[in-house]
Design goal:
There is one protein chain. The chain has one domain (about 10-100): Outer Surface Protein A, domain 3. The protein has no helices and ten strands. The protein has strands spanning about 10-15, 20-30, 30, 35-40, 45-50, 55-60, 65-70, 75-85, 90-95, 100. Strands 1, 2, 3, 4, 5, 6, 7, 8, 9 and 10 form a ten-stranded antiparallel beta sheet that branches.
Length: about 100
């Protein structure tokens, strides 16, 4: 007997939430996969890259700052991270291990 695939999310879509946030999502057989963009009500932008439902990296932009970080298989912040401070005109490089900035 074959599997039922009628209700699986597959492909790209646009989500509009009651709180004013919106998202462009990418799914592959009910798993987040690829680039997903979220715009929050206060105009913050989140770009999250997924590989088969696991978070790979994220970029988060607020009013005066931009953050970029990579994640390990346990979805903890791991490796190099960068913060760009537009108001202070500086770039901060950091390293993370098991979810903690070191």
């Amino acid at each position: 007997m074959g599997r039922v695939k009628a209700f699986q999310k597959d492909g790209r879509g646009i989500l509009l939430h009651d709180d004013g946030s919106s998202a462009v999502t990418s799914y592959d057989k009910d798993m987040l996969h690829g680039l997903n963009l979220v715009l929050t009500p206060n105009d913050n932008l989140i770009s999250a890259n997924y590989s088969k439902n696991k978070l790979v990296d994220v970029t988060y932009k607020t009013d005066g700052m931009l953050f970029y970080g990579k994640f390990n298989a346990a979805e903890q912040l791991e490796g190099p991270a960068v913060v760009v401070d537009y108001s202070g005109k500086q770039i901060i490089h950091a390293n993370a291990k098991k979810g903690q900035i070191v």
